[in-house]
Write a structure and sequence with these properties.
By secondary structure, this protein is mainly alpha-helical. The protein contains 7 helices and no strands. The relative contact order is 0.14.
């Protein structure tokens, strides 16, 4: 129960609802997790993109599965040496007008995993959106 009258010491007791409401205040949460408006907008955008991607992924799962099989087949052919793909990244950066990107040696998966680790909050936001989109469709 909430005591609305101040006791002799002058302190007012707060109830659990007021404490809960204060902890869920948007401004307090933003300060606690060091979130700015830009970060919140980015997280919401990635949540929305994850939702759309999850929704469309489940709806077109058959086509995604066939595309994944084709990509795995091409990757297996490249690993066995039957075919070879090389990408001239310097020329690719020139074509798209990208400047100042350091050359990174490594495969695509290690670069992708490094990006996920560097942008953990955005990755979790996208994943949550994907799961919600998957469940909705």
């Amino acid at each position: 129960m909430v005591d609305t009258k101040a006791p002799a010491g002058g302190l007012v007791e707060r109830g659990w609802f007021e404490t809960f409401k204060e902890k869920l205040n948007v401004e307090n949460l933003a300060k606690k997790f060091d979130l700015s408006k830009e970060k919140i907008i980015t997280l919401v955008l990635y949540l929305g993109a994850g939702f759309i991607f999850g929704f469309l992924f489940k709806k077109y799962l058959r086509y995604v599965f066939v595309l994944a099989l084709i990509i795995v087949g091409i990757y297996a052919l490249q690993k066995t040496g039957a075919i070879t793909f090389t990408v001239d990244w310097v020329r690719m950066n020139e074509v798209f007008g990208i400047k100042g990107i350091p050359q990174i040696d490594g495969n695509v998966f290690s670069i992708f995993w490094g990006w996920i680790k560097a942008n953990l909050a955005v990755s979790i936001s996208f994943l949550l959106g994907f799961i919600i989109g998957w469940k909705v469709s």
